[in-house]
Design a protein that fits this description.
By secondary structure, this protein is mainly α. The chain is built from 18 helices and six strands. A hairpin with a 5-residue loop joins β2 and β3. The chain is globular. The structure holds s-citryldethia Coenzyme A. S-citryldethia Coenzyme A binds next to loops.
């Protein structure tokens, strides 16, 4: 393993240190590159650039490995729960029983959202996209906690802010669903655990008793675990970038929601279901749509397929695919698009176009089928992704701030007009 890198620029040669992570990932530390050479690097989409050192999540795209704080995602999805995983991501270790009780108890007692927030919420039209509402409301919450705007607030105050955001996003998400179906919002019930409370607030009605179905609670809890963090993806990098300016946690999370909204990122889970519905309406000819996805003159993409890092199966997709059959069977739900999804996967994974480009189903390919079986409308899917990703965003924001990382400010290579003198062109 090399311990130095050498860059030769004409007659000049510079030496740069090699930095190796705990899993043997190797990097060239270019912190001094510009001072030494006057050069910067160019890496559109940061495909080859490590933005930071992080101890939260490790993934190996070639091997299809994903671990939160060293624990394999397969074990966490099978044996843990979303609140325990949130604690693990935030504090680095699995909680003792007392720590878990304290953590979940604090979250339970912060699920109420200030009544005045409703005045902002009521301003949205009923068909406003859930992600636009969530982005706005998460930033709005900062107005009700002015202390959280202080970048030098104490560790305890920072921790309280994180607890508040974790607790209140679930309530806000349930409000957004209620608006979309024209039902009155429900208030949190402290007798429920986090996921049961979210389901109660989302699907409960003031007119009748609602008891969360354990099958649904378990399925949603597993999906939230699988979405909880994913190292430096687009939205998490956005949260870190915004937080690096010492913007508060609410604003940083709102920025993460905005980034996740994009159809190439978290918005893909909604696009997958819409794509499967189109294929179903077209007669279910999956081969036809695989050909469209390969056609460079056709802007159709196989949504839920491909990944910037995974060049093997996304381990989350494997777990969700298995859960699909289990949950739909237990709920007695038959969803024809599940069979279309499986056929699409089978045809695509045999096609050289997808094999050569190492395009496999990602976390978004099957998740929407379970969300739909639980009863969520398609437009709510990306908001559910955000709810799952929230502990990851907050953990990464916390790690960045505790490391006193500098404000993010990438360089560029200018390609515009060179210097020229002003001459008045407009005839006045
Ligand atoms: C998430 O980063 C993360 O960790 C994200 C995430 C997380 O947990 O945070 O995992 C969540 O965002 C998952 C990805 C969800 N997005 C989609 O499912 C949208 C469909 N997939 C793509 O658009 C694409 O695969 C990306 C955006 C996911 C990755 O894009 P890259 O890495 O920039 O790769 P690319 O677009 O340059 O594609 C490489 C080649 C191209 O073909 P060529 O130019 O080499 O001929 O693969 C092709 C692309 O055209 N390709 C696809 C394809 N995805 C890539 N062709 C058809 N269908 C697709 N889905």
């Amino acid at each position: 393993m090399a311990d130095k890198a050498f860059i030769k620029l004409g007659e000049k040669e510079v030496e740069l240190p090699i930095y190796v992570g705990t899993e043997g990932e190797e990097s060239i530390d270019i912190n001094k590159l510009r001072d030494l050479t006057g050069f910067v690097t160019l890496d559109s989409g940061y495909k080859n650039t490590g933005a930071t050192k992080s101890g939260i999540t490790f993934l190996d795209g070639e091997l299809g490995i994903l671990r939160y704080r060293g624990y394999p995602i397969e074990q966490l999805a099978e044996k843990s729960n979303f609140m325990e995983v949130a604690y693990l991501l935030l504090y680095g270790e699995l909680p003792t029983n007392d720590q878990f009780v304290d953590f979940t108890d604090r979250i339970t007692h912060h699920t109420l959202v200030h009544e005045d927030v409703k005045q902002f919420f009521d301003g949205f039209p009923s068909n406003a996209h859930p992600m636009g509402q969530l982005c706005s409301l998460m930033c709005t919450l900062s107005s009700f906690y002015p202390d959280s705007l202080n970048p030098n607030m104490s560790k305890e105050a920072t921790d309280l802010t994180i607890i508040r955001i974790l607790a209140k996003m679930a309530t806000v998400v349930s409000w957004i669903h209620k608006k979309s179906v024209g039902h009155p919002i429900m208030y949190p019930q402290n007798k429920y655990d986090y996921v049961s409370n979210f389901l109660y607030m989302t699907f409960g009605m003031r007119t009748e008793e609602y008891v969360p179905d354990p099958v649904v609670v378990d399925a949603l809890d597993k999906l939230l675990i699988l979405h909880a963090d994913h190292e430096q993806n687009c939205s998490t990098s956005t949260v870190r970038m915004v937080g690096s300016s010492q913007a508060n946690a609410y604003a940083s999370v709102a920025a993460g929601v905005a980034a996740l909204w994009g159809p190439l990122h978290g918005g893909a889970n909604q696009q997958v279901i819409e794509m499967l519905e189109i294929i179903k309406a077209d007669g279910g000819n999956v081969a036809k749509f695989v050909e469209k996805a390969k056609d460079k003159n056709d802007n159709f993409r196989l949504m839920g397929f491909g990944h910037r890092v995974y060049k093997n199966f996304d381990p989350r997709a494997k777990i969700i695919k298995e859960a699909c059959d289990n949950v739909l069977n237990k709920l007695g739900v038959f969803d024809p698009v599940l069979d279309i999804a499986k056929q699409l996967e089978e045809v695509a994974l045999k096609d050289p176009y997808f094999v050569e480009r190492k395009l496999y189903p990602n976390v978004d390919f099957y998740s929407g089928i379970i969300y739909r079986a639980i009863g969520f409308p398609t437009e709510m899917f990306t908001v559910l992704f955000a709810l799952g990703r929230l502990p990851g965003w907050l953990s990464q924001w916390k790690e960045m701030r505790e490391a006193n990382e500098p404000i993010g400010r990438p360089r560029q290579i200018y390609t515009g007009p060179t210097v020229r003198d002003y001459t008045n062109i407009a005839i006045r």
